[in-house]
Design a protein that fits this description.
The complex is a heterodimer of chains A (288) and B (331).
Chain A: H1 3-34, H2 41-59, H3 62-83, H4 93-115, E1 131-133, E2 139-141, H5 142-164, H6 166-176, H7 178-183, H8 188-210, H9 220-235, H10 240-260, H11 265-279
Antiparallel strand pairs in A: 1-2
Chain B: H1 2-6, H2 8-26, H3 29-55, H4 63-76, H5 85-107, H6 112-132, E1 142-143, E2 150-152, E3 155-158, H7 163-186, H8 188-198, H9 200-205, H10 210-236, E4 238-239, H11 246-259, H12 265-284, H13 288-302, H14 306-329
Antiparallel strand pairs in B: 1-4, 2-3
Helix pairs in contact in B: 3-7, 3-10, 3-11, 3-12, 4-5, 4-6, 4-10, 5-6, 5-10, 7-8, 8-10, 11-12, 11-14, 12-13
Classes of the chains: A mainly alpha (288), B mainly alpha (331).
């Protein structure tokens, strides 16, 4: 592997890592703050991709599609939190797993009813078509760089929101001590609803922005869900910083795994997880 | 013995067992095959109940051992003839036990949500291994052309290809697995497992190495799960990655909850309820998964103790009613 292709693969790995981060950060926030394990998170990613496919066709523009799709996803997230998830606070993880598993069955079937089982593709917008030449015969697509760039912005924005704003303070307070936060007059139910819909929208956003690169197909949420779980476990459950490092590690391990040993690429991801857990069972930034 | 009959729950179970034993005499062959599948699911669900209901380990990757053992049977069965069960069964059970030992060694040192996610991740790792392995048929799966032979020398003891024989083979397996798990749970070992479920720190403080007990429980459950996989592969004649995917793990967990956790027999009742319910939903609509999802949510919200919970409440009600009636009779 020469330097240029190494560079290309690294950029691919980072880009995949950013996407994983968007999905995993919602998962880790929802667990860390609400104590809920949400299996339906992957379905939000899938719904994002289908929404953008549909809305891009309707509006003729990917950016408009994303802008229209995000509020829809926020509402869906809010409704699910109010009518299903909110019954699960303080209940055993077992029941959380099962209820959200039931949600997956429903969401996957709704997707089939609304859009069928075909594969779809979403066109890359004209301004982001083309690629940067690196050498005579190797180049890097502009759109992939755009994904990394936008995801980095979102990650920064999230960091700012959580560490600098009043809402962020409430979220952090809720995460470290729910009862105490309530005693101090924070409406924890409202914080939960916000965090959950926000997490759903983040996952959907990842699905939307990735749709032009990967195609849109049934069950696409299942795969990313499992990988995001690995990311969350590696990073330490509840830790955004951990989710970021974990996402980058897994993004790179998966990409280089596919290049270096194509048959065992998916094993590389889980192998990385096993190694890290041997060293730190609570994950890199997890509280024991 | 009379005390066994005095408990309405036990009466219910014995009646159900008698019905199962008599079923091949009057059931249509399609339903006999269906009941075989359900009993295999029941064995699998009981092994998961050992983890969830008695040890407090919520494993979300239990299908891995089921599927792995099935694949091992496919691998050791030659294309030209049957494999001897004396060779195939130890390979399948040993493989499942070894996998459970390795996965358990990593995962039981964690708890709660970590345990759920790690068992899930390991199961997915096996899933992708079989899904991408073209020599084993990839995502299409692999056929098992011959059922294992049960013979000593040239003398055939059982013909597993015969539907009735296989039905009773599975039924006896179901009873033996139930008895085995009961013995394990009533032994001091089982008491420690219950202790771990209720309060792990306190059990540890009493001087038990909880890690070893949890690992042992995980390996036992994995091995029994592997036995169910062996039966399923023998019954089906085909093995595909779906058998170890996480939807399978989820549905086994659903069966355990629906039947009622921590009762063992509830797992078997849950398997019956689940399969018949699925059948019914499929007749109602092509979008039956929508109904199934709704039903799963319903059970979580309104029936957390499952069918066993209902039966036991009813049985307690009967016992009370009977004792009240006999109180009145007494002067």
């Amino acid at each position: 592997m020469d330097l240029t292709s190494f560079l290309i693969q690294t950029m691919n790995g980072v880009q995949y890592g950013f996407l994983l981060f968007l999905v995993a950060s919602g998962l880790t926030l929802v667990f860390g703050i609400m104590g809920i394990i949400n299996l339906a998170h992957g379905a939000f990613y899938m719904f994002g991709a289908y929404l953008v496919f549909w809305l891009t066709n309707v509006s003729g523009n990917l950016f408009l599609g994303i802008l229209l799709g995000l509020p829809v996803m926020l509402v869906i997230g809010f409704v699910i939190e109010r009518f299903a998830i909110s019954f699960l606070y303080n209940r055993d993880h077992l029941y959380q797993v099962l209820l959200t598993y039931g949600l997956i069955l429903i969401l996957n079937e709704l997707q089939k009813i609304l859009w069928g089982s075909d594969f779809y593709s979403v066109p890359i917008p004209d301004i982001l078509k083309g690629s940067f030449p690196l050498t005579e015969n190797q180049d890097y697509p502009v759109y992939r760089l755009f994904i990394s760039f936008v995801c980095a912005l979102v990650a920064l924005g999230m960091y700012g929101l959580i560490s600098r704003t009043k809402l962020g303070m409430m979220i952090r307070a809720g995460a470290s001590d729910r009862e105490m936060a309530q005693t101090l007059g924070i409406d924890i139910g409202r914080v939960f609803a916000i965090v959950f819909s926000f997490g759903a929208a983040l996952a959907a956003f990842a699905g939307m922005i990735d749709a032009p690169v990967s195609s849109v197909y049934p069950g696409m949420g299942d795969q990313i869900l499992i990988v995001s779980f690995v990311v969350v476990v590696i990073g330490g459950i509840g830790s955004i910083k951990g989710a970021f490092i974990g996402a980058m590690l897994i993004g790179l391990a998966d990409t280089f795994g596919k290049v270096l040993m194509p048959d065992l690429a998916s094993m590389a991801v889980y192998g990385t997880m096993a190694l890290i857990l041997m060293w730190r069972p609570q994950g890199l930034f997890g509280r024991a | 013995m009379s005390r066994v009959f005095a408990n309405p729950t036990n009466l219910f179970l014995l009646t159900a067992l008698a019905m199962l034993a008599a079923f091949p005499w009057f059931g249509e062959s399609f339903y006999v095959g269906l009941v075989v599948r359900i009993m295999i699911l029941g064995i699998l669900a009981m092994s998961l109940d050992l983890l969830i209901g008695y040890t407090g380990l919520v494993s979300f990757g239990h299908a891995a051992f089921f599927g792995l053992a099935g694949y091992l049977l496919a691998i050791v069965t030659p294309e030209t003839g049957p494999v001897s069960i004396w060779y195939a069964l130890p390979v399948c059970l040993g493989g499942a036990a070894l996998a459970a030992l390795v996965i358990g060694w990593f995962s039981v040192r964690t708890s709660g949500i970590y345990f759920i996610m790690i068992t899930l991740a390991f199961a997915q790792m096996l899933y992708y291994f079989f899904n991408e392995n073209m020599e084993l048929g990839g995502s299409d799966g692999i056929f098992i052309f011959y059922k294992p032979s049960v013979a000593i020398g040239d003398f055939q003891i059982l013909d597993l290809g015969d539907h009735t024989t296989f039905y009773y083979f599975v039924l006896v397996s179901l009873i033996l697995v139930y008895a085995l798990l009961r013995v394990i749970l009533n032994a001091p070992f089982g008491q420690v497992l219950r202790g771990i479920k209720i309060n792990e720190a306190r059990t540890q403080a009493l001087g038990f190495s909880t890690f070893r007990y949890k690992l042992a429980s995980f390996v036992i459950a994995g091995t029994i799960g592997g036995y169910a996989g062996f039966l399923e592969a023998t019954h089906n004649g085909i093995m595909s990655p779906d058998f170890l995917g996480w939807h399978k793990s989820g549905s086994i967990m659903m069966i355990v909850i629906l039947g009622g956790i921590g009762t063992l027999w509830g797992a078997v009742v849950g398997a019956f309820a689940m399969v018949f319910l699925q059948d019914w939903f499929q007749e109602l609509t092509t979008h039956w998964l929508l109904l199934m999802g709704g039903f799963v949510i319903f059970v979580v919200l309104f029936l957390p103790r499952g069918i066993a919970g209902l039966v036991e409440s009813f049985s307690a009600f009967l016992t009370r009613a009977v004792s009240r009636a006999s109180d009145k009779d007494a002067p």
